[in-house]
Design a protein that fits this description.
It comes from Spectribacter hydrogenoxidans. This is CoA-binding protein. Pfam families: CoA_binding_2 (PF13380). The two termini are 17 Å apart. The protein has one domain: Rossmann fold (3-Layer(aba) Sandwich). Strand 1 and strand 2 form a beta hairpin. Strands 3-4-5 form a 3-stranded parallel sheet, covered by helices on one side. The protein has a two-stranded antiparallel ribbon with strand order 1-2. By secondary structure, it is of the alpha/beta class.
């Protein structure tokens, strides 16, 4: 989760907990918090510092910061990019798609997962 925050009340913290409660491992990325722990996970300064496979890069940053995040996501071989509500960067999304990443933009997993579960008639399993 790029842009993870330790400030109470931030959406990134709520979404991180939501995903963890559903069994997902969420690795926080925030250069200002690197070396600390957030919701039980070590915080990394950038995506390249993560030493395990990343399935999805979830972005809680302004749209103008997404270009460099896409570069990092491509470099680590992430298969998917998720831009949170209000984060829209069509050019970066197109570059990510051209590199083979699946892209979700201007949506929130804490909204989409429950919607998909309602439509499926049950929980989505990790």
């Amino acid at each position: 989760m790029v842009g993870a925050s330790d400030r109470p009340g931030r959406d990134s913290g709520r979404v991180m907990r939501f995903l963890q409660d559903r069994g997902y491992r969420v690795i926080p990325v925030n250069p200002g918090l690197a070396g600390r722990r957030l919701h039980g996970e070590p915080v990394h300064g950038c995506l390249a510092e993560i030493e395990t496979r990343v399935d999805l890069v979830d972005v809680f940053r302004r749209a103008d910061a997404v270009d460099s995040i896409v570069d990092q996501a491509i470099a680590i071989g992430a298969p998917a990019l998720w831009l949170q509500l209000g984060v829209v960067n069509e050019g970066a999304a197109a570059r990510a798609r051209a590199a083979g990443l699946d892209v979700v933009m201007d949506r929130c997993p804490a909204i989409e997962i429950p919607r998909l579960e309602r439509e499926a008639g049950g929980p989505i399993r990790r």
